[in-house]
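Subject: Protein record for review, amino acid sequence with backbone structure tokens
Why sent: The fold of this protein is of interest and is recorded here as tokens.
Enclosed: The protein record, placed directly beneath this head.
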Amino acid sequence: MREHLRFYRHRWFKVWIAMIALSAALIAVIQTVGNQAVLPAAFFYGAAAGPIALLVAIHDRTGIGNSVPGTTLIGMFLFGGGVALMIGGYFDSLLITSKNGPTILRVGWIEEAAKIVPPLAVALKGRYLTKAAGVALGLSCATGFAVMESMSYAWKSIHSDGVIGAGTVLFIRGLTTPFSHLVWTGLICAIAFGVWEVKGRVVITLPIVGAFVAAAVLHSLNDGLLTINIPGPARLLFIGVAAVSYWLFYRATRDLKPRMVLGPEPLRV
């Protein structure tokens, strides 16, 4: 308990504070001297602060960042996240007719399917078929998706709420997306790649389907609580959805541990 209360000592917290501070400083530059050239950077650091902090925390707990080459993870962040956003955005437009109506409950099924496509494409090649690698790939893809989606929300709000309002949107989404987009995709990949590591190939099993259904339902519940016209206090249930989402992800990845790096054996005389 004492260690949990000292969260400010952990790397994830330092990363989060540094990125939030940099985003706020860039917004201050815009406000004081009117230099709009730094706006994309302010949006990026604000949108990425929460997701990157969670990635650092998960890596420190599990060591998953060592399971896949860094260039592959960067590619999954940049291109996997972009492909997922493209697929999700296309089908969202086709199948969701109202952001405030019941069709918003379809979004979880659409976007969770979209985010699993890039990691699945890698798995189908027979590469990185381990649970640790799958979680790393899934989280990288979901981070790219979440960051770019948050930046799009900020761009929309800047016209009505100004730069400060857009920064507020980024700060709030930076607190929520790590416990939504990242853990939903991470849950699916933890279960799927765990099965595929044992089987040695990509197969569809009941646990994988169950993980996808759980992630899609939680995703849809989250979006429904935040957008459908319901009584104000009921919206706070999205906090419970976030807590359940992270708990499921934690349970699915608690067996992952950092690899021990063994040095040379001591010389015996």
The chain has one domain: 2-253. Confidence is low (pLDDT under 50) at residues 261-269.
